[in-house]
Amino acid sequence: MSLLSVDHLGVRFGATEVLRDVSLAIEPGEIVTIVGPNGSGKTTLLRAILGAVPLAGGTVRRKTGLRLGYVPQRLHVDPTLPITVERFLRLPGGAAPAQIAEALDRAGVPGIDRRQMADLSGGQMQRVLLARALVARPDLLMLDEPTAGLDQPGSAAFYRTIDEVRRDTGCAILMISHELHVVMAASDRVICLNGHVCCHGTPEHVSSAPEYRALFGTGTGGALALYRHEHDHSHGPDDPHGHHHHHDHDHAHSHEKTEAAE
Fold first, then answer.
1. 110 vs 101: CA distance, rounded Å
2. Which residue in 1, 18, 20 sits closest to 10, CA to CA?
């Protein structure tokens, strides 16, 4: 059974239709990336899945007992508010010190539990937000543009951490990205959103789809190829997808004929 399935979802804010007829499903252990221009409804879609915005139509079904972890785009911490990293991670509901230490370690910032939240760098803050989501040991980790403020090496390192989290814990990942060329390599599937699902499929399929090119232009294609080449290098020519190969099962719920493009 899918961890999560969204069927013909619609969201309106007043007279404005933000999302219409959006359908997708997340399978266990998958990395699914949502791309789309500003104002395309990406954050709204995550918030609808979390139950934080009302639906105008359609349904969101979660597997019974599904544990969700959510990493928001950014968090503003009042510099006059003294709160340590450890205290911040305990806020959701009394996590034990061992759980906090494990989550910080997994997020790549071990040993910063005594630091003040206001003193963290942008990259450290994103990793603490990731650790906070990991404390609950989620089955599905949802991230909203987690590398928005980071430079290219910082972004690449963060995505490597996400891939390691998936590998070590088996959780599925639903991620919004604005940096297509960095994300693509680790994603099993990409959904291009612009108020509705424009195109959907493997990274290769989406990056060559006319709907994607109409939204993003062809410029990102070069950067994507470069990054994939670097990523594929460690797997050898016989298996260009590396260990993601086993995720290529047919997604029958998709109404797009994407699988034929592989």
1. 7
2. 20
Q: What is the pTM of this model?
A: 0.79
Q: What is d(CA 55, CA 57) in angstroms, rounded to the nearest whole number?
A: 5
Return all residues near 93 (Cβ < 8 A) that are at least 6 apart: none
Buried b (16+ CB within 10 A) or exposed e, 132-163: bbbbbebbbbbbbbbbeebeeeebbebbebbb
Domain coordinates in residue numbering, the chain: 1-22+39-66
Asked if residues 12 and 181 have their Cβ atoms less than 8 Å apart, the reply is no
Distance of CA 143 to the CA centre of its chain: 4
Compute the distance between CA of residue 92 and CA of residue 108 in angstroms, rounded to an integer: 20
Residue with tokens 């709204």: 44
Q: Quick one: average pLDDT of 20-43?
A: 92
pLDDT tens across 209-261, in order? 888 888 776 554 444 443 443 333 333 344 444 443 333 333 333 333 333 33
Both structure tokens of 19? 């999302």
Are the C-beta atoms of 253 and 5 separated by less than 8 Å?
Answer: yes
